[in-house]
Amino acid sequence: MVVGLVEKAVPAAKSTVSSAVKKPTSLSSDPIINVALGDPTIYEPYWKKMGDSYFCNAMNLCWFLLPELDNAIRTLHRVVGNAMVDDDRFIVVGNGSTQLFHALLYALSSPDLPEPINVVAAAPFYSSYPEETKFLQSKLYKWAGDANCYDKDEPYIEVVTSPNNPDGSIRGTVVNREGSKAIHDLAYYWPQYAPITSKADHDAMLFTFSKATGHAGTRIGWAIVKDKVIAAKMVKFIEVSSIGVSREAQLRAAKILGVIADDCRNPDHKGENLFQYGRRLMSERWGKLREVGMKSNGVFSLPKYPRDYCKFTGEYTDSNPAFAWLKSKEGLNCENLLRDKSKIITRGGPSFGVDSTYTRVSMLSRDVEFELLLERLAAIKGTVNGN
Amino acid sequence: MVVGLVEKAVPAAKSTVSSAVKKPTSLSSDPIINVALGDPTIYEPYWKKMGDSYFCNAMNLCWFLLPELDNAIRTLHRVVGNAMVDDDRFIVVGNGSTQLFHALLYALSSPDLPEPINVVAAAPFYSSYPEETKFLQSKLYKWAGDANCYDKDEPYIEVVTSPNNPDGSIRGTVVNREGSKAIHDLAYYWPQYAPITSKADHDAMLFTFSKATGHAGTRIGWAIVKDKVIAAKMVKFIEVSSIGVSREAQLRAAKILGVIADDCRNPDHKGENLFQYGRRLMSERWGKLREVGMKSNGVFSLPKYPRDYCKFTGEYTDSNPAFAWLKSKEGLNCENLLRDKSKIITRGGPSFGVDSTYTRVSMLSRDVEFELLLERLAAIKGTVNGN
């Protein structure tokens, strides 16, 4: 067996540490001593708390993932039915799904390619993807814009967000060439936002605690990955970026995801589970917003979504996206209009790769703010007509 | 005033959100509504817990830093006297100091330079710096090796670790040209490892919870930064990388740092505070290791450190570094020797930019492992002589 003392964990060291994590104090007569790293276990007696070290589960490919969180994630996906989480899928935890997006760019690119790999997404796309991709001016990958216009005969990664941010549409890849690579960002594929029509089963899928439960201050995201090599590269990325993910946040996320899953499965549950609660709220808000939209005399309009059968709720349900994607009359700048006429700050179409008749409005605000938003939007018609 | 709903926080949005964080429910008659972002505050009633959003302190430059942690960090540095933390210094929290190292590379580099800025450190240097610098093949910065050999007439960033990892030496910059930029990694500048001779007061200093207290699983590091522009760029980096730092980890770190500071200041404290405890342990271990080293008949030797007056303890103290920097006889490969003869895994000199007669041994293991290490090292002399 092996005794492990780790400083900054590296994959090469992982296998030698495994046994130490399992049996830190019972040493066989002739163990290997690993003092190559510097895991500060020396202070354990002071803190009277065994096992605070860099490693959460040295047996696992993702050695910084707490087993409790791994279990909670898989259980919740099984209960909700929104993603395939069979045992051969790898879960990689990150400091929010943002870090995992970076990790996937790294994992799907290759230092052997002569040019950076192109990263594309169909417009309107999440406004942070271009910035996140360009940020460090990596030679590994580069932002290449709207996937709908992509015509280069070069390797690429397509980022697919479904339901999409900003417009709530259900999406698949649009480029579809042989050997393509894709990142499926499923942050909003939960019953409060959209009907759960099937278990998503893509090569690399991203989820985030913040959009599922509202706990944005707990920086926990996870990837579900089919290919071990890709998962291992992601783990490497998170090692080099931040040496894993805080176990306090993982523990809290595990508890909360567990509570939600238990709630959903409890036949005696009297109240609503989180998804029922969220869906009711979102549905009410969307109803109110659509009413205001219809009375706006075309000043702004909203997308329509197909009703679909949700396997989680067992009924046909509407999409109630986390953002409303407003389109104003042609010739109007929707973001400026809302800001100047109504003191409503939104994010305009150009941030998402489309024209300025569009703007994105959060549907996840507090009640008092949302009601005020409705009031302002209802009043805007007169303002614009009187302009 | 402003009502703020934020998705991924961006500096531009920060000022409009501030008031919302202060007064989220009392709206004046004509507030600005910020629905540009998507902070999921909608679920607050369900969680019956106000204020879980991306923002910890929207009034602060580092908007994801919990005020409790900011206070705890400054208080502990004041109690220990190891760093200047006047109110004009900016604290930036990160997912471990590793993320802050990346953030500083970003903050100290410039997209306007024609070439990547050179990153150097005097050998032996921390073995992760080269990997962290090269990792994403950024066009902003590149690894340029041993600072002692740096002779290019180009901009550079010098990384200074003091006490140094791996060799425990107290260090300053070695290149010292006009307009130079430096990152001071002070992870080990705590009383258990070295005498605290003065308040460190560099432009950008890094500290990490894991080395100060041993809580490596809590991914919390912090930077103390003089220049607001640099601090703001670091905040931007952490936004784009991970949208901040989990508040659970920050809360726990704040509590623990607070306990330590209180312990240190308590005149009625009967036992040892963490630093006294740590220093006693480290001093005992170093005593034992030196004894083994002296009896090794020159098979390996250890660095000597000057005794110095520690202002924290009020006495002359020794350095007791977190790593032992072993040097074997000329012609021997120290890492291979320990591995092959004694089943001791260490990290050899070449990882740190020097020759293979050196190797690094963690001094922060559990007691049972450390005792075994001593036994093996004591036995090695016979093994080598009989070779």
TrEMBL record, chains A, B:
<dbReference type="InterPro" id="IPR015422">
    <property type="entry name" value="PyrdxlP-dep_Trfase_small"/>
</dbReference>
<dbReference type="GO" id="GO:0016846">
    <property type="term" value="F:carbon-sulfur lyase activity"/>
</dbReference>
<dbReference type="GO" id="GO:0006520">
    <property type="term" value="P:amino acid metabolic process"/>
</dbReference>
<dbReference type="InterPro" id="IPR015421">
    <property type="entry name" value="PyrdxlP-dep_Trfase_major"/>
</dbReference>
<comment type="similarity">
    <text>Belongs to the alliinase family.</text>
</comment>
<protein>
    <recommendedName>
        <fullName>Alliinase C-terminal domain-containing protein</fullName>
    </recommendedName>
</protein>
<dbReference type="InterPro" id="IPR006948">
    <property type="entry name" value="Alliinase_C"/>
</dbReference>
<dbReference type="InterPro" id="IPR015424">
    <property type="entry name" value="PyrdxlP-dep_Trfase"/>
</dbReference>
<dbReference type="InterPro" id="IPR050478">
    <property type="entry name" value="Ethylene_sulfur-biosynth"/>
</dbReference>
<dbReference type="Pfam" id="PF04864">
    <property type="entry name" value="Alliinase_C"/>
</dbReference>
<keyword id="KW-0663">Pyridoxal phosphate</keyword>
<feature type="domain" description="Alliinase C-terminal">
    <location>
        <begin position="33"/>
        <end position="380"/>
    </location>
</feature>
<dbReference type="GO" id="GO:0008483">
    <property type="term" value="F:transaminase activity"/>
</dbReference>
